[in-house]
Amino acid sequence: MRTRSEVSAGGVVYRRSDEGVEVVLAARRTRRGDLAWGLPKGLVEPDETPEQAAVREVREETGLDADVEVSLGEIRYFYVWEGVRVRKAVHFFLMRATGGDASQHDDEMEEVRWFPLSVALRRATYKGEREVLQRAAARLT
Ligand code: ATP
């Protein structure tokens, strides 16, 4: 099977409230049609750094502005699309929300919502992203 590589970047966007730390998850339809809750992310364009792509994708997908604070490392996975095996790496950053409005999210996202960090740790669909959220929790709590 043919193989290609993709590099994406995204963020754990957080804010502090009276109840504690909250983070953003976005729900999207997978290519199979299921609903998946995940971190905002997308492909790094040729002229971008991963940090720049993370800020842009967070803005586009969630409607929120956020500043990159620190790298949370990367996750890797494979998927198969139209007979091509895609090897994907996604760089994630801890990002502090500075403004914007989650109701202004992309149509690609069914829903964008703030969750208490402890809830997001269970709600995120993919194991790799739950591990990224654990690393964020270790820094934030
Ligand atoms: P983007 O441009 O936002 O990086 P995309 O929609 O082109 O995204 P993915 O979000 O990587 O591509 O989705 C491709 C496939 O990989 C889907 O089947 C999806 O369910 C699966 N997938 C997405 N994230 C993960 C993950 N963290 N771990 C395992 N599989 C994942």
CATH-derived architecture? Alpha-Beta Complex
* C-alpha Rg (nearest Å): 15 Å
Shape label: globular
Count of DSSP H/I helices: 3
Largest sheet: 7 strands, mixed
Q: Which ligands does the model contain, each kind named once?
A: adenosine-5'-triphosphate
How would you briefly describe this protein structure?
The protein is an alpha+beta fold. It has three helices and seven strands.
Verbal overview:
The protein has 141 residues and is α+β, with helices and mostly antiparallel strands. It has helices spanning 50-62, 117-123, 127-140, and strands at 2-17, 20-29, 35-38, 41-43, 64-81, 84-100, 109-116. The protein has a single domain, classed as Alpha-Beta Complex (Nucleoside Triphosphate Pyrophosphohydrolase), CATH 3.90.79.10. α2 (117-123) packs antiparallel against α3. It is globular and about 50 Å long. The structure holds adenosine-5'-triphosphate. Adenosine-5'-triphosphate is lined by residues 8, 30-31, 36, 41-43, 75, 77, 79, 88, 126, 128-129.
